[in-house]
Design a protein that fits this description.
Helix 2 packs antiparallel against helix 3. This protein is 50% helix and 12% strand. By secondary structure, the protein is of the alpha+beta class. A hairpin with a 6-residue loop joins strand 3 and strand 4. The chain has a four-stranded antiparallel beta sheet with strand order 1-2-3-4.
Length: 153
Amino acid sequence: MDDQTVSPEARTAAKWWADQLRGPARMDNGSLEYSMETGDPNHFDQAITTMGLAGILNERERSGLSDEQISVFEEALARRVQERLQQSGEFGVTIDVDYHPDYLLVDSADEAGIRVGMTLFPWKTTMWIETGSVRVSCGYRGPTEDLSIATAS
């Protein structure tokens, strides 16, 4: 598949995920929100510790990545998303991370020589890709954001 056959939607989706490798991923599993709702001080301490450790691990996992690896990841993911879009037709493609990333992310990272750990991509994140639309909800109960579709320059 050459560059001409990869849709703007696939490129937009791939860029968003590559950007998560460039700058800190949102490590929000909802534990802090839960502790605020319940008022449980013990749970609050655990939530802060979990999110703090996740942030440290995310930084550690990303620190060894080169710009070239991230670019290879982005291109590989764009190609895989495009292939899935062609197969899925009107149903589109969904990429998600609960605590472990979707196989599209893992396979693209493998192609780029990136080792995937549990904190490399943002937790509790879902992306929906359809013709004319790329939407993402990042983090636990994160608002759904409509991404601006990248156009060829």
